[in-house]
Design a protein that fits this description.
Elements: E1 5-11, E2 22-25, E3 32-36, E4 43-48, E5 62-68, E6 78-79, E7 87-91, E8 101-107, E9 121-127
Antiparallel strand pairs: 1-9, 2-3, 3-6, 4-5, 4-8, 5-7, 8-9
């Protein structure tokens, strides 16, 4: 069966009342990741297993991790393995396995860490399906 099974959607509002981020992961082993509202992100990670926001993760469980120095460089949708000028692949994409549980974690880095900036973070757990 094509598709994915949504285990949980974990999205939080920033301390400044920003809207929830809803993440959608398409079917397939090289899925498309989209989110609404369509705010730009600076970091996207796919982790093997289930993780909650703020939970430490094992670097051995990173399936793919991209970042941009520009806090507004990654726009919805992004395909698994995406690469472009100005985007750093912290971890190159590893093959996803059908039936395996993964978590998408996304972050928009604040302009400064003074606490005055708005930023977004969100996560969604899914099961990859061919």
């Amino acid at each position: 069966m094509l598709g994915f099974v949504l285990l949980s959607v974990l999205a939080i509002k920033s301390a400044l009342g920003m809207p929830d981020i809803d993440i959608n992961v398409s079917s397939g082993l090289t899925p498309s990741i989209s989110w609404t509202p369509e705010v730009a992100m600076s970091s996207i990670r796919i982790l093997e297993g289930t993780y909650d926001l703020g939970q430490p993760f094992d670097r051995d469980k990173v399936m793919w991790w991209i970042e941009s120095g520009d806090r507004e460089a990654l726009h919805s949708p992004i395909s698994y393995g995406y690469s472009a000028q100005g985007i750093s692949a912290i971890h190159q994409p590893r093959g996803l396995a059908s039936g395996q549980t993964y978590t998408v974690y996304m972050l928009q880095t604040p302009r400064s860490f003074s606490g005055d900036d708005e930023f977004y973070q969100a996560a969604e757990t899914f099961i990859a399906r061919e």
